[in-house]
Amino acid sequence: MNKRFLFLFFPLGLLLLAIFAPKPNFEQKQRIVIEKVETRVVGLGLLTILKIKEPKGIVLELYQQKEGAQDPELLHREKLPEGLEAQVQINHQTKSLFVFPLENDHKFKILAPTLDQKLRPHLNAFVWNFETKELMQINDGQAATD
């Protein structure tokens, strides 16, 4: 009886284990910092901009560390419409995040290249205003490649 029991229920046990066993999850569950740019703003402290790859896409995060403060404060988080990372090479340097001060010291232009699912390049351009704490997109994001 023992051998017959083992013979019948062992394959059934293996089948149930195969069906209900935890499946390996190969999805990326962590955040990866692609690029970090820091710039000091007179009277306002340090502005840090991160381009981060997350499981559901790419985001920009803006942080401010005021003079004398220990920890930076998250000012804004913006999900980019395209989810694939792109880089630009200028003067033999490869970068994926650019920050330029505008005439007013409290405004910055932020450029973050990405690719869409068809591998078409997009240049996401924003203006960050420190006074109003607003991030405004200044173009439609798609490069003229068609």
Q: What do these coordinates show?
A:
With 146 residues, the protein is mainly beta. The protein has one domain. It contains one helix and eleven strands. The strands form three sheets. Strands 5, 8, 9, 10 and 11 form a five-stranded antiparallel sheet that branches. Strands 1-2-3-4 form a four-stranded antiparallel sheet, with no helix packed on it. Strand 9 and strand 10 form a beta hairpin.
Protein topology:
Blueprint: H1 2-20, E1 32-41, E2 45-54, E3 57-65, E4 73-79, E5 84-85, E6 88-90, E7 93-95, E8 98-101, E9 107-115, E10 121-129, E11 134-137
Antiparallel strand pairs: 1-2, 2-3, 3-4, 5-9, 6-7, 8-9, 9-10, 10-11
What is the end-to-end distance? 74 Å
Task: Kindly provide the radius of gyration, computed on alpha-carbon positions and rounded to a whole number of angstroms.
Answer: 24 Å
**Topology as a string of helices (H) and strands (E):** HEEEEEEEEEEE
Strand-residue proportion:
over 45%
- In terms of structural class, how would the helical and strand content be classed? mainly beta
Beta strands, count: 11
Estimate the mean pLDDT confidence. 81
Continuous helix count: 1
Uncertain stretches: 141-146
> Mind describing the biggest β-sheet?
5 strands, antiparallel
